[in-house]
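Hey, resending since the last one bounced:
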Amino acid sequence: MTSFRRLLCAALAALSLLPGLAAAEPSAIYLVRHGEKLAGQDPDLSPRGQERARHVAAILHRAGITAIFSSKTARTQQTAAPLAQQTGLNVQLYDALAPLALVEKVRGLSGAVVVVGHSNTLPELVKLFGGAPGTEIADDEFDRLYQLLPGADGKVRTILLGTP
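The structure tokens again:
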């Protein structure tokens, strides 16, 4: 009977974990466009872009960020760097040409997640996460910051924030 009791306890413990596994979903997803950039191929952030990256970090540093993703360009990685430094998280790189892979990876996480992208990739990512991207992002618009809040009903609330 002792073996049976142990097996039963182990089975009940495993079953108690299933709801948590099914609920593995980010509490919030923040999508931000990289800051202002210099000219050239794969340019760095300009001084203004570096300042904006620090503002993004200041806005999100208490948001319970558990993961940070950036496309592979220098400007997106540099935008993510101040937040990564503040949170102690590593920036995970994703392929901007494979948005579904990123979405699936993020959906398996918990806590708040940040994704840094581009004017031509963020609206699609917002849609793939179930949000409403709003108007197009202009080439000279660098202050776009989306907050996506998944609801218990499966709907995603989209809040459009901005950075100074």
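The first helix runs from residue 2 to 22.

Sorry for the duplicate.
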